[in-house]
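The aim of this short unit is practical: by the end, you should be able to scan a pair of folded records and say something sensible about each. We start with the first protein, listed as its amino acid sequence and then its structure tokens.
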Amino acid sequence: RVAWTSHENGPTSVAKSSLATGLVYAYTKRPSRLGVDAWYLTALDARTGRTAFSVRTGTGALMNNHYAAVTIAPDGSAFIATPAGMVRVRDRD
């Protein structure tokens, strides 16, 4: 049976789940009427599927992660490999 669904679109994402946070992290895109090719690190609540947060990481084709996995470091930072380089997302100190 399907436990939940989400409207988030992760076209090239290999999502990663964290038992410590209870979140599923995915690299997502949103539709844009202006044609902006923006990418986001999005966290979904693993129990409900609701979007917990979404952080814009950049725009353009070089920000596509081409199916690379989202990696969660021990300090909670998320890393996404892109042709433009490594993207790091973390909470503020």
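Turning to the second protein, read its sequence before its tokens, just as you did above.
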Amino acid sequence: MQREQLADFLRRRRMAIRPAEVGLADGPRRRTAGLRREEVAMLTNMSVDYVVRLEQGRSSQPSIQMLGALARALRLTDDERDYLFHLAGHRPPPAEGVARLARAGLIRMLDLLGDTPAMVLSHLGQVLAQNRAAVLLAGDHTRFTGDRRYLVYRWFTEPAARAVHPPEEQEHHSRQFVAELRAVAGRRSGDPTVTRLVKRLQAVSADFRRLWAEHEVGVRRVERKTILHPRVGRLLVNCETLVTPDQGQQLLVFTPADAETRERLELLRVLGIEEFPEQTTDASVR
């Protein structure tokens, strides 16, 4: 771990980011350019004290998860992200694999979408990054670990994941989840991560076993769905999925399907995330 160089790199990258790039207001009282340490702490779910110690070169070695959060918050390019990992004494994430970080280009697209909810997903449905509008719409999906980081796993094992959609839509979503996982399993035949996920789902969910046996295959590109939001009520949204050329990551974009939903999404942006009950934000996004 190269503490001094790590500290200098993090300070310089923090000062190079404009607040608007990460969805924060510039505010009239800013005396210097860039983000405040408090804002970096908020964006990465770290303590302010730890951010300070990182920038002063006296921290413990940050974990891979912490480095990933810093790379997203500071909008690092792929090269900068790999450099950050090297400075911290870790091997950069592999070019392929479920646990890799969201691509820098997709992160910048999240920023450009502004108030339009959007998120980046891995090929197995792990949410790698979200913009603020997507967090307001569906909750923070980047916080999950283990099997729970996969949307399909939560859908078939946690009732709260289904409750965000009306009962009449849930069978359709179940079939779509399984059909997409079938498609991934076909493209990545022999991938142990995919194989293990399928086996674990078969072991814990009779509903998954039923649908997996039907051998349906399909990938969603455009879809309309209803979201039952705990703060603003029923939302009818169009979901557009853009896939990277290697099909390793997806950009999922939500747009209102009617005028009422547009008004409610605007209200949600005004309300913000304060006092948003965490237990009600675990919405299924697919």
